[in-house]
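Researcher: Re-running this chain for the archive, since the previous output was lost when a drive failed. Same request as before.
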Amino acid sequence: MQNSATLRDHTLNIIKKLPARFQSDQAKDLEAVFQFRLGEQFSFHIEIKAQQCNIKMSEHDDPNIILSMSEAIFIALMSGEIDGMSAYLKGDLTAHGNVMLATSLSKLFKKRPGDSQKIAQ
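Model: Regenerated structure tokens:
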């Protein structure tokens, strides 16, 4: 298992790269807020509006969906190591609100070379 400082750095690095991975053509007519809660005290949200993606390191007042998971699961999801449905079925990810929005995340954010790098178990 990675230590928490390394895990947090990796998580922040992934979040920082999300705007560059955003596929605006997949966001036509989509206006939504995805709230991510990673562990007990770390959260951020992604607001998609007018084919643009804005990320804020805070809680949103009224998100369309709240996705809760550990940082390790977030990294595995974003790197393509696991898929969201598998994580949900195993109980590693919980979703509240418009859960159908969660299925659009893989289309909205493309994988980049090297993103499939495995994390320490």
